[in-house]
Amino acid sequence: MEPRPAAPGPCPGDSRGAEEAAAASSLHPAEAQPRRRAPAVAAVLPAGGSGERMGVPTPKQFCPILERPLISYTLQALERVCWIKDIVVAVTGENMKAMKCIIQKYQHQRISLVEAGVTRHRSIFNGLKALAEDQPDSKLSKPEVVIIHDAVRPFVEEDVLLKVVTAAKEHGAAGAIRPLVSTVISPSADGCLDHSLERARHRASEMPQAFLFDVIYEAYQQCSDYDLEFGTECLQLALKYGHINAKLVEGSPDLWKVTYKRDLYAAESIIKERISQHICIVMDTKEDENHVGHHLEEILKNELNHVKVTSGALCPTSRDLEQIILEQCYNYVCVNVMSSDFEETRKLLNMLEESNLSILYPIVVISVYFLDYKSVPFDEKMESLIQIREYAKEVKKRNILLSGLLIYFPQDEQKLQASLRQGVTIIATLIKERNSGLVGQLLVA
Amino acid sequence: MEPRPAAPGPCPGDSRGAEEAAAASSLHPAEAQPRRRAPAVAAVLPAGGSGERMGVPTPKQFCPILERPLISYTLQALERVCWIKDIVVAVTGENMKAMKCIIQKYQHQRISLVEAGVTRHRSIFNGLKALAEDQPDSKLSKPEVVIIHDAVRPFVEEDVLLKVVTAAKEHGAAGAIRPLVSTVISPSADGCLDHSLERARHRASEMPQAFLFDVIYEAYQQCSDYDLEFGTECLQLALKYGHINAKLVEGSPDLWKVTYKRDLYAAESIIKERISQHICIVMDTKEDENHVGHHLEEILKNELNHVKVTSGALCPTSRDLEQIILEQCYNYVCVNVMSSDFEETRKLLNMLEESNLSILYPIVVISVYFLDYKSVPFDEKMESLIQIREYAKEVKKRNILLSGLLIYFPQDEQKLQASLRQGVTIIATLIKERNSGLVGQLLVA
């Protein structure tokens, strides 16, 4: 899976999304213009749920994954789509303060908060009202198309958002669907099977959904209290009050909704996997080509062949390391020259701290030493160990997970290969687990 | 969550299950007997699926979790229910050999293998035929009630199995259900919303299901080819051919089906969590009460208050450690007296190897040393390090994950508390992650 760009706000170079949405907007000849125009799109995110199904006190949209609340990942997924102009989040009064902290801490952009209602529909309605009202002091303006998504579906991709928006432009309403995993049955009053539905003829209605703003807003204005209390399905409102048969769009498995505790486990594993796909080996350019660090790089590439391994130099003239940081690489293996000195690692840590990259995900840094501990007095190594523990404590506050790796460096070529492979196993483990419990350790290969 | 008993075959002391099932069997006055009789129950497990939804080449029931195939966990869950007499698994010819290896390696009991059909229904039918036939050479006999379960639902608990069996005895058929997570909709021919179903009036049909054997077997014998090719729902067959409205039993979230890759992640996390709920501190009984090892135990109890922490002594006269191993504790913290000698750890490792406990789950063993590395020449510690790496390599072959933990032992009471807490953090991490990549390491607190 591709790691999604982490930096909120500014958009990825290619504005494919915007263009295709523009193309979509010109599907209606009446609207065709010499200069294509992307539809004004906003998103509404109901986040007032209590998450009773999760079996945990915290509402699930606020449950932490790698110490960051789930909803922040969902906001990040919407923010990186530059043609979504505004994102309106409906949260309960008691969570309003927490939500503001989240927006500030993770530097979320284009977010407006509204008070959630007592039900999902009422929360969505409040979000729509905020977009409809043209108050002078409001920075929100009425969009042409509105996306409705769940705060607990963090893995939504731009392509499905684009598909539902494009379909909503044409049909008035659109929603993502998935095949049913289980057969759906209808119970009788006495708790027995009345009949089972044919799986092939039914689908699960998922999120995101998109609507022409006027269609869904008018539908909500006509809603009965019963709808607002007991309904959940926006497509149904568009059908009932707007007489619009929503276009159904096949979604990917990524759209799944974090519902149970097990889903939090799954989400954490998926996120860890996504940010572990790129490892950067940082080496002093003064090193000669035959330096063992290059052997390590080779073995990393061979053993972790599903992972992208690049190398970056620390010398100020070369810009490649800065580029790699900009590309949001969250894993660094820093090869130190033979000494207990931390010069290279310190330089790297400074660059990472300045980049603010670790705001969204923990960065793993592994500081590697090659030496023959039989020949070197061990006190030195204990010095290194004590040093690295201090550094680790320090940078952990900035969400950087630093550990040391001592690679035994025998003259025997075969033994060297063995300890290099062992080193790669340790590196892979530290990156995969991304667990702060082992920071500051000096591991030995 | 309670860790489920791991040892297959022999039953847990309380045969609650059998008794309640017996009670159930006497629900029909006609069958009431002076001596209550449990119904003869067998289980059929269709495991012929290809797992295309998983997006991985291996069929999902054979995907490894902690290096053990998923289906082995499901068999374990059924085996520990002693009133299930036979478990018939339907696997494709190409997987027959692999399945036999799994049964042997993990010492599964009461399993019979039959050839899977090309569809789920045909596989189940083959399983039922094997139970129906009374061949002299067959060790299978026709059960009164048959459970049908999925190979990819490893977390099924005894209580729900008992509920469906009891209900099947009374109604002829029964199945577990769950609330719908998403709204179910019906698409029109042109891929638009035709109508959406009222969530409250529908349920997801899950597994396990149970049937009076004759009811489901006769239903399968009457099945059309269309049923066998395109049907999936056994309850529907009982209704269509047996005119039996199955009793619906509310199931727990545990019943979920491993369908996508993310479900494998979730399953692994759940299993890791379950086997991390009990930690045993092993200490030499010769230690006095004030030994720092007891402080460590105290802090473990305080910091990991959701975990059961017990202590076991190695002296041959005391049986408590053997008892703890019998209770299937998968986590051991072995406190060594001040030396680089491995005596205690070696004793523990021998006991664990003899117990065969690690057949089903990897055991974590953390060998703890207390010492002031400022006062002791470091070579000794390197000796320990090299020793522990050798032991670790050795016992890893037996699925035991051994690491060392050096706890800095300053005179200053406050500093000591700090390093003990740090030690507990490392212990918790090693137990939680249960990753073989760090075995043989000597970590420092």
UniProtKB/TrEMBL annotation, chains A, B:
Its main location: cytoplasm. It is found in: Cytoplasm, Cytosol. Residues 1-40 are annotated as: Disordered. It holds the Pfam family ISPD_C. It catalyses: D-ribulose 5-phosphate + CTP + H(+) = CDP-D-ribulose + diphosphate; D-ribitol 5-phosphate + CTP + H(+) = CDP-L-ribitol + diphosphate; D-ribose 5-phosphate + CTP + H(+) = CDP-D-ribose + diphosphate. It comes from the Eukaryota. Signal peptide: none annotated. Keywords: Cytoplasm, Nucleotidyltransferase, Transferase. The keyword Cytoplasm applies. One of its GO terms (cellular component) is cytosol. Residues 1-11 have a biased composition (Pro residues). Its EC number is 2.7.7.40. It is an enzyme of class 2 (transferase). GO terms for molecular function: D-ribitol-5-phosphate cytidylyltransferase activity. Transmembrane segments: none annotated. GO terms for biological process: isoprenoid biosynthetic process; protein O-linked glycosylation via mannose. Residues 20-32 have a biased composition (Low complexity). PANTHER family: D-RIBITOL-5-PHOSPHATE CYTIDYLYLTRANSFERASE. Homodimer. Belongs to the IspD/TarI cytidylyltransferase family. IspD subfamily. Cytidylyltransferase required for protein O-linked mannosylation. Catalyzes the formation of CDP-ribitol nucleotide sugar from D-ribitol 5-phosphate. CDP-ribitol is a substrate of FKTN during the biosynthesis of the phosphorylated O-mannosyl trisaccharide (N-acetylgalactosamine-beta-3-N-acetylglucosamine-beta-4-(phosphate-6-)mannose), a carbohydrate structure present in alpha-dystroglycan (DAG1), which is required for binding laminin G-like domain-containing extracellular proteins with high affinity. This is D-ribitol-5-phosphate cytidylyltransferase. It comes from Zalophus californianus (California sealion).
